[in-house]
Design a protein that fits this description.
The complex is a heterodimer. Chain A is α+β, with helices and mostly antiparallel strands. Chain A has helices spanning 4-9, 60-65, 73-76, 84-99, 105-133, 138-158, 180-203, 206-212, 220-225, 231-235, 242-245, 266-288, 342-348, 350-354, 362-369, 373-377; strands at 20-24, 36-42, 45-52, 167-168, 171-172, 309-316, 321-328, 336-340. In chain A, helix 6 (138-158) packs antiparallel against helix 7. The longest helix of chain A has 29 residues, at 105-133. Chain A is globular, with a radius of gyration of 21 Å. Residues 1-5 of chain A have low confidence and may be disordered. Chain B folds into two domains: 2-36; 55-153, Alpha-Beta Plaits, CATH 3.30.70.3270. The termini of chain B are far apart. Chain B is an alpha+beta fold. The chains are: A alpha+beta, B alpha+beta.
């Protein structure tokens, strides 16, 4: 078992004579956003990586305190904008938990379908950006071809491509578009026809494998000690899928596997996300022909008031565990909201896995953590 | 045995690179599978889905009538203060005062297209339009008044 004191003691690395301290970011193409890394180098070997945060802090938690329970959900699309649906889902679930509303079966199925489509879209973008970090530019366009199909489906049903605001307390905002089932089936066909290209272009490539295998090793103990979640922990072999451990909506009735790899290196985390896309396709295939008839939204009052108390829900986003914690004083606005975002914990492990490796591998390691900076700062 | 493994590794590496290059060359010679659209050139054929959220508009009929009663439900539902309803009192023919909208001010620069105002509207007076090219030279041009000048409420809408 990893002791807490070990982490604290080896954090005390101060630059010595001959060390080079360089800044990566806040405006740097490799960090996918405004992340500022202060790197202490000894030659080419990394001694310490210190992330500086706050460049895109919009105080979303504080903003939410002045918005009503219907209004605050749209802001959370701007946290982890690549899994906007899942963020909205978590907030809607938390409000529903407070209101004690029963969600119609149709709404539950639509929500799960949207979540899984978002997860695939997010992993597609990650895959393209990851390959681009390592210098391969073409895969980005291959990934965007499939992602664009999902964006078109979202545009048709939800009316927006990225920040949809489709999940509302009680269900979903609108019923699915009449074309939805046909379009999703077309997407599944396209995905199955094209997915082998991913392996041909990137996974099997010898340069890619040499840059990923054995790089950025994270042991299962450290993954737990740093509070990582999602594909980062599963790459180290720790079971952490919220959909399996604390099932919400209809996930306990679905047949899918939790993807686990035992490598713990960058390649294991890469494989987790590739295999997770297949699992999401499996879930969509089970549900797309079985959307039950009925209402898409439960009847709720015009003004929502949560009873006095504390409510917490968690969901599995494309990056890991997202927790929503609402403290209510009985009014129409929350007294306090806290989001436990997966990106923040996953970033904190970067210093640990980067120490001792070469600076050229830093971007590869950061890529496999799948960081979304607005999610870290909020 | 070391030399056999060494040569095998080199051959495997070359093969993996050739597989990737084959896929790239496939798309180089198959132009029909490329799905990229040239945006400003395809403007005539570009059709956005009817649910696309581009801008809030208020539909008027042929005789310049709208369905807005001035209930301010949209103003209350908006998270950003995008909509401001300015009401006035009309005198009906039988001498009674009746509340009606003077102006429905819409700040496009503040709008996040969350669709909450459309959901809140009890009389379907406003809807989302499919426009998306909103850039102008001055911010004041983004503040719009949604009801047409001289318009009044449709008969039968309460």
């Amino acid at each position: 078992m990893y002791r807490q004191t070990d982490i604290i003691s080896d954090a005390q690395v101060s630059p010595q004579e001959g060390d080079l301290v360089i800044n990566v970011g806040p405006q740097h193409p490799a960090t996918h956003g405004v992340l500022h890394l202060v790197i202490t180098l000894n030659g080419e070997t990394i001694k310490k990586v210190e992330p500086h945060l706050g460049y895109i802090h919009r105080s979303i938690e504080k903003m939410c305190e002045s918005l009503t329970y219907r209004q605050f959900i749209y802001v959370t699309s701007r946290m982890d904008y690549l899994s906007a649906h899942i963020n909205n889902h978590a907030c809607a679930l938390c409000v529903e938990k407070g209101l004690q509303v029963e969600i119609p079966a149709r709404a539950q199925v639509i929500r799960v379908l949207m979540d899984e489509l978002t997860r695939i879209a997010s992993h597609e973008l990650w895959w393209g950006a990851m390959a681009m970090d390592l210098g391969a530019f073409t895969p980005f366009f291959h990934a965007f071809r499939e992602r664009e199909t999902i964006n078109d489906i979202m545009e048709e049903t939800c009316g927006a491509r990225l920040t949809m605001n489709y999940m509302v307390p009680g269900g979903v905002m609108q019923d699915v578009h009449p074309n939805f089932q046909r379009r999703v089936k077309e997407f599944i066909q396209l995905y199955k026809r094209k997915i082998h290209e991913y392996d041909e272009l990137v996974t099997g490539n010898i340069i890619f494998q040499n840059r990923m295998k054995g790089v950025g090793y994270l042991s299962p103990e450290d993954a737990v000690a740093y509070g990582c979640s999602g594909p980062v922990t599963r790459g180290s072999g720790v079971s952490s899928d919220i959909r399996k451990i604390y099932p919400y909506e209809i996930y306990d009735k679905l047949n899918f596997d939790e993807v686990l790899e035992s490598g713990g290196d960058s390649f294991a985390r890469y494989m987790i996300r590739i295999r997770e896309m297949h699992e999401s396709i499996k879930i969509i295939e089970q549900l797309i022909d079985n959307i039950p008839e009925g209402d898409f939204q439960a009847k709720t009052k015009a003004v929502l008031k949560l009873p006095k108390g504390e409510f917490y829900t968690r969901v599995e986003t494309a990056r890991g565990e997202l927790g929503v914690y609402i403290v209510s004083e009985g009014g129409t606005t929350p007294y306090r909201i806290k989001f436990r975002s997966p990106g923040f914990s996953n970033l904190s492990v970067l210093d640990h896995i980067a120490r001792g490796s070469k600076i050229g591998d830093l971007v590869a390691m950061m890529g496999t953590l799948d960081l979304v900076i607005p999610d870290i700062d909020r | 045995m070391f030399i056999v493994k060494y040569i095998k590794d080199i051959l495997g590496a070359v093969k993996s690179l050739a597989i990737g290059m084959k896929r790239t060359l496939y798309y180089f010679t198959h132009h029909k599978e490329i799905i990229t659209q040239q945006y400003p050139d395809n403007k005539d054929t570009l059709v956005l889905p009817e649910r696309f959220k581009g801008e809030v508009v208020m539909p008027h009929n042929e005789v310049n009538e709208h369905r807005c009663t001035g209930c301010t439900a949209c103003e209350l539902a908006c998270p950003n203060g995008t909509i401001k309803v300015v009401t006035k009192f009309d005198i009906t023919p039988d001498g009674k005062k009746k509340k009606a909208i003077d102006k429905l001010v819409y700040h496009l620069e503040l709008c996040t297209m969350c669709n909450l105002c459309i959901e809140a509207c009890p009389s379907d007076a406003i809807k989302m339009a499919q426009t998306f090219e909103h850039s102008v030279y001055d911010r004041s041009q983004l503040t719009k008044i949604l009801n047409n000048p001289g318009s009044k409420i449709m008969e039968g809408v309460e």
